[in-house]
């Protein structure tokens, strides 16, 4: 909660560690890459287990599910969190019902006393640390949270809302997990072999057993099926969210110069292609390498615990962050505790250590390659020359303001609507704003603040379109002002730009999105028409 408060624009490991050192931030981000990779693979495997897919088909079906999520993310993460939000209430209901059905049967009879050996107890404690990933996810998304009441524009505060988000995670980890664990240990000992066999879909097994104990085998079977479907869908949404988050993380690192520039190349839907391929390929590689659920689970914790260690350590020793002595001391204690957990995981799970080392070696190799290319690119032009030919200086000097009317046209290419807009501007003696939006359909931990600054001359497609528009305007005698924006959603930017510029007419081309794209991302013209101020005339051409 303290990290969320002091980093209102995103308190994930990459943002927090960057203030202490670029290399440290990259290491933390790569640990998060390892975590998200295993999350996608593990969640997919568990989802298919909850659906009752036979064990021999789990690997193939999980691979297929990950590929399907990759296809959906090809169109952008517009609805990535929708399924998880829709399933939140059903999930809470079925978990509460399992606990309520188990309450009459809870017993301490089958529990073993605390082990005398501290090492055994410590290793067992380390084994239940997995649920911490929810806390890191919340810290990473503070930039997308609604600011607290009374926050000042430009200096948002999200401490109270972050507390509301973290509290359910804390309750789940401490109370929910304990009660479900107790319910599992309260089952008769003769069910132990079946429990080991059903460890991949344990909540469905608990629902079946306690449903049968209370209301008979018919109810137990139906209740178990419902629980299986709910958790399967929830876990599949976790696969989708992990892939979308991995795409966003790799893209953000590339924009910051910590990954090769090739990672910023976008498809027609604004999704970076290389990060998409990596985000789908890595979980599949891990699946094929491990080939069983237990091995997958063993890889999980080392990445997220390592990322949280880096985050906590950087915040603890960052004296510029506003924290009182108690908060800093508590953070230091937690940091030391999690370092011990990370070292224990490295010692007791050699496969996990090997996996995370592979991710770090490959990732740092790409980082070094990106730094080398970045250094070469920086030397190609002097700073003095760059300052003289800055695009914003040229555009401010060349933009006339004598026209009485303004027209805004949003284009995706040299389309008929652009020609129509020039004809109208010429006839009405109006200034023509040509808007090109580079849709960046990735999840940003830092919200709007993380969006890269836009310079249309550095974007090949935008440069070709807007440069041609300037030439056409010069030839026709129409004042033409190019506008280039990076944005996750075209419709909202078009409406905002039209209102900000105070245009009289907004011109759009007819939508050419395919059926799948419209289903996943919506229709831009329809969204704009529903939000545009009444004093702006909307013209849809084509």
Can you characterise this structure?
The structure is a single chain. The chain is α/β, with parallel strands linked by helices. The protein has 2 domains: 2-147 and 157-371, Up-down Bundle (Amino acid/polyamine transporter I); 400-541, Rossmann fold. The protein is built from 22 helices and 5 strands. It has helices spanning 2-6, 13-18, 22-50, 55-73, 82-102, 118-126, 133-140, 159-185, 192-197, 202-215, 217-255, 273-290, 293-316, 325-348, 350-378, 383-388, 391-398, 416-428, 460-476, 490-501, 515-521, 524-531, and strands at 405-411, 430-439, 480-487, 505-509, 537-541. It has a 5-stranded parallel beta sheet with strand order 3-2-1-4-5, sandwiched between helices. Strand 1, helix 18 (416-428) and strand 2 form a beta-alpha-beta unit. Helix 3 (22-50) packs across helix 15. The chain is elongated, with a radius of gyration of 27 Å. Residues 376-382, 396-402 and 446-450 have low confidence and may be disordered. One of its GO terms (cellular component) is plasma membrane. It is found in: Cell membrane. It comes from Terrimicrobium sacchariphilum.
């Amino acid at each position: 909660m303290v990290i969320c408060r002091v980093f209102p624009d995103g308190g994930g490991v990459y943002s927090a560690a960057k203030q202490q050192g670029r290399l440290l931030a990259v290491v933390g981000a790569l640990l998060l890459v390892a975590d998200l990779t295993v999350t996608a693979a593990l969640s997919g495997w568990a989802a298919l287990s909850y659906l009752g897919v036979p064990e021999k088909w789990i690997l193939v079906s999980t691979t297929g599910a990950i590929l399907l999520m990759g296809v959906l993310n090809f169109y952008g993460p517009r609805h990535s969190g929708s399924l998880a939000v829709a399933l939140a209430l059903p999930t809470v209901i079925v978990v509460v019902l399992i606990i309520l059905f188990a309450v009459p049967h809870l017993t301490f009879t089958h529990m073993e006393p605390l082990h005398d050996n501290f090492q055994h107890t410590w290793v067992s404690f380390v084994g239940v640390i997995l649920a911490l990933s929810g806390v890191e996810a919340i810290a990473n998304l503070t930039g997308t949270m609604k600011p607290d009441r009374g926050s000042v524009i430009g200096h948002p505060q999200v401490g109270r809302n972050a507390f509301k988000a973290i509290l359910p995670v804390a309750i789940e980890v401490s109370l929910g997990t304990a009660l479900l664990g107790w319910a599992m240990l309260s089952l008769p000992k003769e069910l132990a072999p079946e429990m080991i066999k059903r460890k991949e879909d344990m909540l469905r097994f608990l629902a079946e057993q306690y449903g049968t104990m209370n209301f008979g085998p018919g109810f137990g079977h139906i209740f178990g099926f419902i629980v299986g479907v709910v958790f399967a869908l929830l876990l599949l949404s976790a696969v989708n969210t992990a892939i979308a988050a991995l795409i966003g993380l790799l893209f953000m690192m590339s924009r910051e110069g910590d990954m090769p520039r090739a990672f910023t190349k976008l498809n027609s839907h604004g999704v970076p292609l290389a990060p998409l391929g990596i985000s789908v390929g890595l979980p599949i590689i891990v699946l094929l390498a491990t080939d069983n659920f237990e091995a997958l689970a063993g890889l999980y914790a080392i990445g997220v615990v390592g990322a949280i260690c880096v985050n906590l350590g950087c915040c603890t020793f960052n004296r510029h962050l506003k924290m009182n002595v108690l908060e800093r001391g508590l953070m230091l204690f937690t940091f030391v505790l999690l370092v011990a957990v990370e070292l224990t995981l490295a010692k007791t799970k050699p496969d996990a250590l090997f996996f995370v080392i592979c991710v770090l070696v490959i990732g740092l190799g790409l980082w070094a390659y990106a730094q080398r290319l970045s250094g070469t690119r920086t030397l190609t032009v002097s700073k003095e020359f760059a300052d003289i030919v800055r695009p914003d200086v040229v555009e401010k000097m060349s933009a006339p303001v004598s026209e009485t009317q303004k027209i805004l046209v949003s284009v995706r290419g040299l389309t008929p609507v652009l020609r129509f807009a020039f004809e109208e501007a010429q006839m009405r003696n109006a200034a023509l704003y040509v808007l090109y939006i580079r849709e960046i359909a990735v999840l940003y931990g830092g919200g709007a603040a993380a969006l890269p600054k836009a310079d249309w001359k550095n974007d090949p497609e935008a440069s070709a379109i807007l440069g041609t528009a300037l030439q056409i305007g010069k030839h026709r005698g129409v004042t033409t002002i190019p506008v280039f924006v990076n944005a996750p959603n075209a419709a909202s930017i078009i409406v905002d730009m039209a209102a900000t510029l105070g245009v009289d007419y907004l011109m759009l081309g007819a939508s050419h999105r395919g059926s799948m794209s419209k289903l996943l991302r919506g229709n831009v013209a329809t969204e704009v028409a529903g939000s545009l101020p009444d004093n702006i005339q909307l013209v849809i051409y084509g």
